[in-house]
Amino acid sequence: MTALEPVTEERSVAREVERRRSFAIISHPDAGKTTLTEKLLLYGGAIRQAGAIRGQRAARHATSDWLELERQRGISVSSSVLHFDYAGYRVNILDTPGHRDFSEDTYRTLMAADSAVMLMDASKGVEEQTRKLFQVCRLRRIPIFTFVNKMDRFGRDGLDLMSEIEDLLGIDAVPVSWPIGSGKDFRGVYDRLAQRALLFSGGEHGTTRVTQRDVEGGIDTPAVAEALGEFHGDVREHLELLDGAGAELDLAAVRAGRQTPMFFGSALTNYGVLPFLERFLSMAPHPGVRLADGERIDPAARPFSGFVFKIQANMDRDHRDRIAFLRVCSGRFVKGDSAVHVRTGKKIRLANSTLIMGKDRQEVEEAYPGDVVGLFDPGVFRIGDTVSQEGSFSYSGIPSFSPECFVRVEVAAVLKRKSLEKGLEQLVQEGAVQLFRDPHSDSAALVLGAMGPLQFDVMKHRLADEYGVNVDLSPLPFKLARWPQGDFDPEIFRYSERVRVVADRDGRPVLLAQGRWDLDRALQRHSGLILSETADPSLFENES
Length: 544
Ligand code: G4P
Description:
Elements: H1 5-18, E1 20-27, H2 33-43, H3 52-61, H4 65-73, E2 81-86, E3 89-94, H5 103-112, E4 115-121, H6 128-140, E5 144-149, H7 158-169, E6 172-175, E7 177-180, E8 188-191, E9 196-201, E10 211-216, H8 222-228, H9 232-245, H10 251-255, E11 259-264, H11 273-283, E12 290-292, E13 295-297, E14 305-313, E15 322-330, E16 333-334, E17 338-341, E18 346-349, E19 353-357, E20 360-363, E21 366-367, E22 372-376, E23 386-388, E24 405-411, H12 417-428, E25 433-438, E26 445-450, H13 454-467, E27 471-476, E28 480-485, E29 499-503, E30 509-513, H14 516-525, E31 530-532
Parallel strand pairs: 1-3, 1-4, 4-5, 5-11, 6-11
Antiparallel strand pairs: 2-3, 7-8, 8-9, 9-10, 12-13, 14-15, 14-23, 15-22, 16-21, 17-18, 17-23, 19-20, 19-22, 24-26, 24-27, 25-26, 28-30, 28-31, 29-30
Helix pairs in contact: 4-13, 5-6, 12-13
Bound molecules: guanosine-5',3'-tetraphosphate.
Guanosine-5',3'-tetraphosphate binds next to helix 2.
């Protein structure tokens, strides 16, 4: 090795970092996430025909019984990572399941993303699921881009949607494009930044076919006025309003998560999808500095490191495998190299690594910051674990978010207690369900918490199927969990019927409460009490 090599390596990693865009799409089910993802993949040449993603999901569903459960319910539990190249960029879409019950998984995926696309149905605006996911993006201060979909249907007024975003989410929405017509008269968009009208015709679902006519010029130029025809007056009036009263696009504010650039289009007909993709890629950030033990880790200047944000057990029943999804945060990941599993201090070889693309798995030889690799996991990884060649730091872990439903686990056969513990321990590592112990009831009763009750069905089914343990799950009346910070005296809830103090997997005290009101009352009575919605709120501080 010559002395010059590290510099060259750093430069080549820097080049790869700069061209990477890793993002997640957040939306409410049915807003069109699958359709949009499919279109982006089509434009990127990653698939040749629409239906490929749905097809892959269907094929994967056939792989095991519990996935059969998802199929029956018409939802997707497993999320995958999709990637493609477009105009010199390497795009990674961290796919997130859309069902509300699986949002814990989605939350974790957001920890691995560098930006998010908030997709909304033009007729519905900000829906519940989007609002929750948005809060996580806010906590992490990642940039959020808004795509208003289904403009080919009757929808709500753009200004109305903007004020809903501002009121409900507390972020300034700044339209980059403005729709020309809507519903069956949706003709195109006016690009405010480039000062030109983009008019679409044709458009065929399942392909990238669409005809786009660009008419350059300000809204008052005769060519644009003529091209917009009957819609000119309306668009002009809206643009004047936006220019006069709306916030101006400020990239620094976007990067800080204070402004969201807003786009309009129809994923189904391809109208506005490509202009969105191009603008998004130029505005969205590449992988940046991440904090690890208070140290700022520069993606290009440090050797390989990354963290596990998701673990999927038994993806393939025939192989009984577990895959740990690792987001590369710095340096070059090279297959076969060794690195340190920081939590245990053990040296591991990065031998079995795959890139997961829907159902297909592809061996990866190398990966760069922003990429996600699937590592075959012999059982050593936990969500949040750092793998790094330097071995001297770990990335701030992944917080547990407050579940909203709770059950008590009962096992009929006492002899099965060991299998139960093993099954639970392994399945909760996937992160969709949290495990708590209730030290005050009989021999450390087990309590599960999840974002929605469907997770419990999946858990019950998998415990029986994969670990041979039949359990009864009885609902508990609690609706939220809070982690006390600093000094905490559990005695203050000793006589409370409505709040129970349990312990999480790491032994930290957690309050399970029946309602917000119970906690408000406790907070009023005990001035030193600080409650957090996540196990470790400091994880969100100081991220750049
Ligand atoms: P999701 O992943 O967010 O749950 O949504 P998905 O893409 O599956 O879309 C939900 C439904 O909305 C689908 O209709 C889809 O075709 C439709 N859709 C998506 N984007 C647009 C759009 O821009 N305009 C219009 N008009 N519809 C859109 P479906 O009838 O449920 O399914 P399918 O039979 O079309 O597959």
